[in-house]
Amino acid sequence: MSAPTRSPQELQDTIAGGIGESPLRPDGTLKVRGEFAYSSDLWHEDMLWGATLRSPHPHARIVRLDVSRALAQPGVHAVLTHEDVPGENVYGLKYQDTPALAADLVRYQGEPVAILAADHPEIARQALKEIVVEYDVLEPITDPERAAHDNTLPKLHPGGNLVRHQRIVKGDPAATADVVVSGVYEIGMQDQAFLGPESGLAVPAEDGGVDLYLATQWLHVDQRQTAKALGLPLEKVRLTLSGVGGAFGGREDLSMQIHSCMLALRTGRPVKMSYNRLESFFGHVHRHPAKMYYEHGATRDGKIVYVRAKMYFDGGAYASKTPVVVGNGTTLSVGPYDVPNAHIEGWGVYTNNPTCGAMRGLGAVQPTYAYESQMDKLAAALDLDPAELRIRNALSEGSTVVTGQVVDFPAPVAELVQRLRDLPLPPEPTGERDIRDLPGGASNTTHGEGVVRGVGYGVTIKNISYAEGLDDYSTARVRLEVLGGEAVAMVHTAAAEVGQGLVTLQQQIARTELGLTRVSVHPADTSVGDAGSSSASRQTYVTGGAVRNACRAVADAVYALAAVRLGRAVEGATLTGGKIVAADGEVVADVAELLGDTAIEETREFHHRKTYPLDPETGQGDAHVQYGFSAHRAVVDVDVDLGLVKVVQLDCAQDVGKAMNPDAVVAQIQGGSAQGLGLAVMEEILVQDGKVRNPSFTDYLIPTILDMPSMHIDVLERPDPHAPYGVRGVGEPPTISATPAIANAIRAATGLELPRVPIRPEHITGV
């Protein structure tokens, strides 16, 4: 089985679409053409449609619940309440505190009270109106700061209204400084605003279990929570990922999972549930609003001496990811800066506002807005350039963060800011301006009068992967076999493709590690080991590492097979271009010929290095696996008379460790920046007395392509020696640093304090 000698590079050049390239996404063309199948497109013969009755009140006691009239409606097959939950009527990501269906109390507007299944979605919607619920309406608790400290308030949960309190103490908490600035900052409730609503299809199985096809971010945690509520063993609750129309954290918590399975098992028929846009606003968690008190002290030459802060995070009715938000918020509270002394406190609390949980930039968005506002305020007090102040205080490799953890990987924070500062600014407008380039755009609100320009910076630090002692890992199964005379690899993980390009990435890794062109990715499901959540910017790191490990195990098995069948050692060989290539460049064997009818399959896990819980008193500890860094410079035009803002330019510099797929990296930075822009100037769920006032895309505004400015994106690659391929999480940091950059630019233009985002016209005009 001999072959001509060729260099490994010559053979590798024949493999397209490996690491460092930007191959076409297999789902890309379908999505652009509108042909991609999302979970809301699921269909099954003889299926029923599920619907949910939700509380109109943010806080009330259920006095009476009667479903008999609804059950009597033609076409209605089942109406279920908390009494029909087969297993435990409670679930939760961190704390088990959320009922599948409300039993005696409702704690937020939109909480599920009853579910039903009918022949047609309209029959289901009309039947909901026949369910009789009598409520004893209670006064809602809506002030998170008061909920954290006022013990006279009613307890929303048996343990009280405090979810988590975390203190961070570094150095001298009573340190003093020459120059001191302080501020109180607020951030509104942002929605993930994914375009694909919550949806799924539950199919009862012959073994008494159920198969659930759905859009989610974490198949196995959904499986565990759903099985517990159904009173079934895990193996009888099987989940398969369907097309996901965006996530951004909003699909980490359960929505229709338990409900659809309950209805399917009760009726013995497939049940589809698909929320409309209104229901979606009530059916998933949102970003935590926060109120933050900050004080910075510095020397007269611009070195930070201390930071003191108090932060209040509104978790809403149930805990969801509030404990993590408090942990991230406090440990990242001083930013990517060298701060020798700090005293930080963070509270996460229960209220009767909508439940808040994971959203892109979890726990870092809130403090970044506050400390970056403070950095500009401090720069003004010191008469320093805002970029220069950030450079003077930037973390670097070897620095110690506020928890005492040493940064033992590249941290090019100063370089990111320097690169942005050196970029050319857009030219100052002269003469008559095109109204399309002005605040207000083609609506013809202004012709340039009262328009001023401002420039602002925003820099962030974000933890990558889960933290505080959690053993975060992923699992991958890789199968190598011959199909059609060619060696083909199949990668199987439970990692959720939520739009970030993970399917493509798994193919790229397998192509590179196995030297093959043809790589398929098995649909993600629970028949393979846990991959964790597609959140925390972790999947490239942990699932990428798992795929790499499984591929290398397959490669080792190929070498072992070759040694047996060829009767020669192949140490130092590589798999390249479908061949086994010796260290000297000799082609030892064709992989397809070597395998024949033999298939090689290996399953491996990847566990990142250990993290540790925080000290409960001081908050010290090596809590995080890795940090990501990004910086933005925003240029804005502000009509100070009308309060309108146009972001003219939004440049970003970010260290990604290794650009596994350069086009996808740029797309992640662009998309994250758009969400940060939305939070800065338009996105907020308005809640009054616990009730949502704008649950629609008519009234909840998100940026469109017309709102997005020109962007120069500078991607740095400073490999992390502890990470597979040196990667660093990409998806979250640009969302975080974009918001304060824009807010600081608006402040620079107007001279106003503007302590809250989103910044609305009335904040600028005062009316």
Describe the structure.
With 767 residues, this protein is α+β, with helices and mostly antiparallel strands. Helices cover 25% and strands 25% of the residues. The strands form 7 sheets. Strands 3-5-1-12-9-10-11 form a 7-stranded mixed beta sheet, sandwiched between helices. A 6-stranded mixed beta sheet has the order 7-15-14-13-8-29. A hairpin with a 2-residue loop joins strand 20 and strand 21 (579-581). Helix 6 (219-230) crosses helix 7 (257-267) and helix 16 crosses helix 17. The longest helix is centred in the last third of the chain and has 28 residues, at 539-566. It is globular, with a radius of gyration of 27 Å. Residues 1-14 have low confidence and may be disordered.
Give structural attributes.
767 residues; alpha+beta; 25% helix; 25% strand; disordered N terminus
The total of helices stands at 18
Give the % helix.
25-40%
Q: How can the largest sheet be summarized?
A: 7 strands, mixed
Work out the number of β strands. 29
SSE blueprint:
Elements: H1 8-12, H2 28-33, E1 48-54, E2 60-66, H3 68-71, E3 76-80, E4 105-106, E5 112-118, H4 121-128, E6 132-137, H5 144-149, E7 162-170, E8 179-187, E9 199-204, E10 210-214, H6 219-230, E11 237-241, H7 257-267, E12 271-274, H8 277-283, E13 290-298, E14 304-314, H9 322-331, E15 341-349, H10 365-382, H11 386-392, H12 413-422, E16 451-464, E17 473-483, E18 486-492, H13 502-514, E19 519-521, H14 539-566, E20 574-576, E21 579-581, E22 587-590, H15 591-595, E23 600-607, E24 626-639, E25 644-655, H16 662-681, E26 687-688, E27 691-692, E28 713-716, H17 733-750, E29 756-757, H18 761-765
Parallel strand pairs: 1-12, 8-29, 10-11, 14-15, 18-19, 25-28
Antiparallel strand pairs: 1-5, 2-4, 2-6, 3-5, 7-15, 8-13, 9-10, 9-12, 13-14, 16-24, 17-18, 17-23, 20-21, 21-22, 24-25, 26-27
